[in-house]
Amino acid sequence: TTCATVALLLTAAWADRRSPSRGWAVLPGAVIAAVPTADLAVGSPARSVLTLAVLTFAALGAAVIARSAAAEAAYAALAAALAVAFVGVAVDTAGAGAPVAGFAAATAAGGIICLAVYLLRARPRTATAVEMVGALGGAAGLAVAAPSATWLAGTLTALAALTSLAGLRADRRIGYGAAAGALALAAVWAWL
């Protein structure tokens, strides 16, 4: 089922490249194939990690293949979400525990935001979609790290640094600067 999901995802991207109106027609098949894939992946930790890794690369490949801006943004956002989930699940599967997995996922989400801010400048729709997924991934990572005060403080500190880095770009300075300030304040509070 993972192979079917990957094949349908890449077929949809290829169809979008040939004719953008046809690419969206194949996506429901990929979604339908993804349901049993997710069910099988939950069965074992190793399968979860492998499935997330394969689907992350497939979604990234679909983002590269797609031609329309909407499809590229959708596939890139999917790849970003899967990458954050992959990092969190891989760390938890390694036996580090949920708070550490939350820290890792939130840090990956912050890194994805930085990648979107600096590497996707020429594609504003895709950058915005990936940044939004990164913000949601950071919030999810914070929620998972929250049961441990130490890991919550570490997660807030890492996110403050990464949003500060994203705020170095002139047109993102106000939004990410404010977010970095709030995260830094929360980090100081959490460390006390």
What does the model show?
It contains eight helices and no strands. The radius of gyration is 18 Å and the shape is flat. With 192 residues, it is an all-alpha fold.
Classification by helices and strands:
mainly alpha
Q: N- to C-terminal separation?
A: 48 Å
Number of H/I helices? 8
Helix content: over 70%
Mean pLDDT, rounded to whole units? 90
How many distinct beta strands? 0
Q: Give the uncertain stretches in residue-range form.
A: none
What is the rounded Rg? 18 Å
Largest sheet: none
Series of secondary-structure elements, N-terminal to C-terminal: HHHHHHHH
Shape: flat
**Strand composition percent:** under 5%
List the helices and strands and how they pair.
Layout: H1 2-18, H2 20-41, H3 45-65, H4 69-93, H5 98-119, H6 124-145, H7 149-166, H8 173-191
Helix pairs in contact: 1-2, 1-3, 2-3, 3-4, 4-5, 4-6, 5-6, 5-7, 6-7, 7-8
Which key terms come to mind for this protein?
mainly alpha, 86% helix
What is the structure about, briefly put?
With 192 residues, the chain is mainly α.
